[in-house]
TrEMBL record:
Highest taxon in the source lineage: Bacteria
InterPro entries cross-referenced by the UniProt entry: Beta-grasp_dom_sf, MoaD_arc-typ, Mopterin_synth/thiamin_S_b, Sulfur_Carrier/Prot_Modifier, ThiS/MoaD-like
PANTHER family, per the entry: SULFUR CARRIER PROTEIN CYSO, SULFUR CARRIER PROTEIN SLR0821-RELATED
NCBIfam families linked: moaD_arch (TIGR01687)
UniProt xrefs under SUPFAM superfamilies: MoaD/ThiS
Positions in coiled-coil regions: none
Pfam families membership: ThiS
Protein name in UniProt: MoaD family protein
Length: 90
């Protein structure tokens, strides 16, 4: 199963877990699997329309999904899906 790395700010919504195996053949399916297990996590990464929040970036094996097939990017068993929240500063 693909492994999803959870950033520190979202870990309270995944029971403190930093890495979670998830089922799915696309990024959307993997994130949906996590969302079904951790509803608060899902609320943090998706907006009301089901799109990723603007401040959430997702990478598969270090490749930004925005430059691949976005949420329909395929994943396989040993892939690593990284969730990276954008950081703002001043």
């Amino acid at each position: 199963m693909p492994v999803v790395t959870i950033p520190t700010p979202l870990r309270p919504h995944t029971g403190g877990q930093a890495r979670i195996e998830a089922q799915g053949t696309t990024v959307a399916e993997v994130l949906s699997d996590l969302g079904s297990r951790y509803p608060e996590f899902q609320k943090r990464i998706f907006d009301g329309a089901g799109a990723l929040q603007q401040y959430v970036n997702v990478y598969v094996n270090n490749e930004d999904i925005r430059y691949l097939d976005d949420l329909t990017t395929p994943v396989v068993e040993k892939d690593v899906v990284d969730i990276i929240p954008a950081v703002a500063g001043g």
